[in-house]
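Sequence in, structure out.
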Amino acid sequence: MSQIPKPNVLFLVTSYVRNKKDQSAWHDHLKECAKQGVDYDVVMPHDNEDSKSVEVIDKIKIHRFQYFFPRSSQKLAYYGGVAHNFSNKLSAKLQMPFFMANFFVKAMRWAKGKDVLHAMFLPSELVAVTLKKITGKPFVIWVQRTVYGPKFFRYLKGIVFKNCDYVMFNSTYTRDTTLKEFKPKKYCVLHMGLDLNYFKPMAKEACRKQLGLPPNKKILFTVGRFVEKKGFEYLIDAMSKVKTKNLVCVIGGSGPLDEKFKQMVNEKGLGGKIIFPGWVSNKEVRLWMNAADVFVVPSIFDSRGETETLGIVAVEAIACGTPTIASSVGGLVDVVQHGLNGFRVKQKSSRDIAEKIDMIFSKPGLVDVLGKNARKYAQENYTVKQAVDKILDVYKEVLDSKS
């Protein structure tokens, strides 16, 4: 990483830590940048509970704004995210003008003295565009999802790309999909980094004992919201086709398709082969990943055209040294290298999933070899330090271009 003057950065985001106990991937990255000398002020919305208006967490100054009264009635941010809530709740749609107005006022107040504007997600990016027009400060974005939806949203995203000084894409998929329609000035691929001291290989027997899992079973694990794009029904169907004996599949999570998946299991007579432990907390995920022999990500392109733009759970799995079977969709192709740390399968193909499961377990020692390769690949490509170094270089580049 090159030596740079450490900038003062205004970070605009719609989802961030709501208290000192909360977790956020964005905060993890900013915290490490702050250790390198970057001075951050974060502007973000309040939740509808009891987050503080102003606080400092890990040397990062956080300023939260309220956008509707009473605060308990706020429905736009968190609890599924702005995009989800806006699409599914009339109250969230009605609150959007108030959200944007309060966001801009708060951001304008803290833009003074800042060198760079850094925004994530469309509402924040539009505020950053307006601030750039007024202040002339450069701004960068870190794209976590592809552009989809009504033409109006695509028009707004086009304004963002036109005015943005640098675009960081979280995967080659988000980059390539975006470049088909928009032409940002400068861009790069910047994968999310993980704390590899947290997501790491652990003793399988101890993890199984802690979770109450049988020590002598072959175990598959997957986790996520029970929604269409996760493709869990194809994994369930694959379990009716596998030939591997003594195999159990654990599907962690919950969501609107909960009953559908459980009904599929009953109809296919898979009650003894598939376990639903319910929602799995962030603290438990690494235990389940280490308890498993193989992790599976059967995601698909859903009916709205959405898919995994990176697949952070796949990154977490390989960081734990767990071989991963994943669909060849979206950003998953960056994470799962076919034959190296796992295998890719055709989306919506339960037969392909079943064949790869049987192949992994039929070859003695293959799980261990793929697992060691998985950990090494994570160390080489998905550390927080790598991401932080790149973020700092991007700040340097946009500041140099303005000097």
